[in-house]
Design brief:
This is Riboflavin kinase. The chain has about 200 residues and is an alpha+beta fold. Helices cover about 20% and strands about 20% of the residues. The protein is built from six helices and six strands. The protein has helices at about 5-10, 25, 55-60, 75, 165-180, 185; strands spanning about 45-50, 65-70, 85-90, 110-115, 130-135, 145-155. It starts with 6 loop residues before the first helix and ends in a 10-residue tail after the last helix. The structure holds flavin mononucleotide. Flavin mononucleotide binds near residues 53, 55 and 158.
Length: about 200
Amino acid sequence: MTMPETAAEQATHERPPAPLRTETFREARPTIIGPDTPEPPFPILLSGPVQKGFGRGGKDLGCPTANLPDESLPPMSTVTQTGVYYGWARVSPHNAEGKKVLSDVDSVVLPMVMSLGYNPFYHNQQLTAEIHIMHDFGSDFYGHAMDAIVLGYIRPELDYTSREGLIEDIETDKRVALKSLARPDYESYKNDPHFML
Ligand SMILES: Cc1cc2nc3c(=O)[nH]c(=O)nc-3n(C[C@H](O)[C@H](O)[C@H](O)COP(=O)(O)O)c2cc1C
């Protein structure tokens, strides 16, 4: 059996085009994903200051994302494939200058979906890790420290013929993540020491 290339290996090779999303894929999507207990390579712990992406996530897709800098990606790129992942994330209430900007309800551990890849729909050339936290934040939090625990893989990244198709899949990703995280052995990671630092 050949192992899938890791994201780091993919970054150094010519990348094959991402598969186009099909109706069959949409209809066959499970509502809960992964084993009942996270298995290696999960959990994967990530940390870094939140960076601005191209800004299309919020405006174009109704799905704002907090990007992690390249320096934060090695734990991900050495072990896994590009695609959509799920887990938990927490944003520090303090900005880069140490001022408290976010309220306490915004800085608890929250469910997230993460896109790791090249966003074929937007033809990005660089690998990015974009985390969408499923919560309505009171304000922006660029520059804030963010910690995340990745617990599972949802699907490969796909190319789309329409923005609506991508939006529909992201909505499904969120539902799948919430259901998958509600299992006790996933829920318990909300209290992981990674979030107490
Ligand atoms: C859960 C999730 C799944 C995504 N899946 C895909 C995908 O399959 N294909 C793709 O091209 N982009 C995908 N994206 C990435 C969006 O294209 C990306 O968030 C968008 O380009 C906004 O980036 P920006 O804020 O840097 O502009 C996904 C994003 C999220 C949050």
